[in-house]
Write a structure and sequence with these properties.
Order of helices and strands: HHHHHH
Helix content: over 70%
Largest sheet: none
Strand content: under 5%
Distance between the termini: 111 Å
Structural class: mainly alpha
Length: about 160
């Protein structure tokens, strides 16, 4: 950097006053100040842009490292899972595995569905509807307010306002 002391600045000011003149010196000083400010802003923007690029490159490198670590972990897990599955399949008897796969057929599924419907009908129709109606069993859902209104004692004597 340029080493400017007070004496050097004073010499530059006197030379500028003699060369430029007292009328134009304030305009030139203002213009020099604005140019110096623009240069500082430009340099700070360039510095910030460079630092942002460096940070982005660091983040990209970190992302690549994390992705490679995740891929390694995934491959390790898949390999250990494949080994476990192979070990279980080797221990499992072949005849049992084949009978389990073959056991579910369309006929069996239809039979199970019929049995389920029959059991559901027996479960729901255990008490006939006429018996429920005769003995006060619920035919449908009644709200709490409707039940209160139904069982509330009623006064049969009319009341008059007079």
């Amino acid at each position: 950097m340029i080493d400017l002391g007070l004496t050097k600045l004073a010499v530059i000011g006197v030379v500028a006053l003699v060369v430029i003149g007292p009328e134009k010196l304030p305009k030139v000083a203002r213009m020099a100040g604005t140019l110096y400010g623009r240069a500082q802003r430009y340099l700070s923007e360039v510095k910030s842009e460079v630092s942002r690029e460096i940070e982005m490159e660091e983040l990209r490198n970190m992302q690549k490292e994390v992705q490679t670590a995740a891929q390694n972990i995934k491959q390790d897990v898949e390999a250990s899972l494949a080994e476990s599955v192979a070990e279980v399949q080797n221990m499992w008897p072949d005849s049992v595995a084949e009978t389990r796969i073959i056991s579910a057929t369309d006929e069996d599924l239809k039979r199970k569905a019929r049995e389920f419907r029959r059991k559901k009908l027996v479960r729901n129709a255990a008490v006939p509807g006429w018996y429920k109606q005769m003995h006060g069993g619920r035919q449908h859902v009644v709200s709490g307010a409707a039940r209160v209104a139904r069982f509330r004692p009623r006064n049969h004597t009319p009341t008059s306002f007079y």
